[in-house]
Amino acid sequence: MQGLTIRQLRAVRNLKLDQPAPAEQIMTDVVAKRRATFGSSAGLAVDLLQLARARFALGKYAEAQTDYAEAYSMAQQYISPTAPPVLVIGAGLAEAQAEAGNLAGARATIAQIEPLMPSTPDAAMPRAIFLRAKAVLLLNEGRAADAKAQADRSEILFRQQGAAAESYLKSFPALRARITKVL
Question: pLDDT tens across 85-136, in order?
């Protein structure tokens, strides 16, 4: 088990260093081994989350959507549907659904998560992730002005988090360029 956790940490490091391809390779192996050894679990949900993040970064949105969906279902079962980390997985699912063209699925996921999303200061990071996912959905629906408003709110929250949000802030120039292109 410790070996899987160490490998997962290596993959997360690769993601922070903008190296999603090696992260995907590592996490594909980790997911297979954890699934074979332990079956469905909170640990497997976290592994699937990291695999989904890597695939999303590689533009493999359909695969990321599948991984996020499985991670979200497991996390709801083994952690809690209202726990901030579970809501973050759900926001990732919504963003992957939107990018994969599954706008109805993304809308449904956003609608499911939004009333559960805490608005307390200690929940700023999950809220920022949720708002970015909502911005991506709105952009893919052709609602660029609304997408910009959500992206603005999200970016403000991320910036307030300092170093913890650096990897998330890297996605904003590309998102802003996409929004500007259709405004």
Answer: 999 999 999 999 999 999 999 999 999 999 999 877 788 999 999 999 999 9
SS (H, E, C) the chain: CHHHHHHHHHHHHHHHCCCHHHHHHHHHHHHHHHHHHHCCCHHHHHHHHHHHHHHHHCCCHHHHHHHHHHHHHHHHHHCCCCCHHHHHHHHHHHHHHHHCCCHHHHHHHHHHHHHHCCCCHHHHHHHHHHHHHHHHHHHHCCCHHHHHHHHHHHHHHHHHCHHHHHHHHCCHHHHHHHHHHHC
pLDDT of residue 1: 66
| Token pair 């292109």 in the structure block, residue | 181
